[in-house]
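USER: Fancy drafting a protein?

ASSISTANT:
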Amino acid sequence: MKVFAVFALVLVGVANGAPQAPANTQGAPGSAAPLIEWGKCEQLKPSDTEREAKASTVDACLKENPIPDPEKTTNESIEKHRETVTTCALKKEGWFNDNGSYKFDRARTEIVNKKLAGDIEKEVLVKHDECQKEAKEKYNDNFIAQVQMYQACMDFHISNICGIKVQIPGAPTPA
């Protein structure tokens, strides 16, 4: 999910204000940042201030949870580290209630605050409710998996509703 990963990192963080795993907004050395066409939802495009705040939060979490030794990493350790950094960032930005559950009501408010066109906002909010319900039902006892499910669900629906397209410079253009 190279394109989807970058998309998820940017889109959900903007759509509901929650930070994601570290986004490579500068691209890997020698590469350019992904190009995002926001379609009918230009309001979701993060401001420079939003991007800087999220980067600062992720940097703080990376300092608390350093990247594992590249010579000793496995896919499992990489995934665990990503989850740890993401959870740290969500906590720092106040996305969990005292009992550890995700603030779905805050996510809804963030969507409304983006001031999307009426028909688009209505459709996104319906999907928010559906994604929230599915995540809570499927992962009632695992809040981290619940958030991941919700965010993946929202990424999928928002990208379709808004017509958002992500292109990695140098990658083949989808047919």
Observations:
- The chain has six helices and two strands.
- The chain has a mean pLDDT of 82.
- The longest helix spans residues 118-138.
- The longest strand covers residues 35-37.
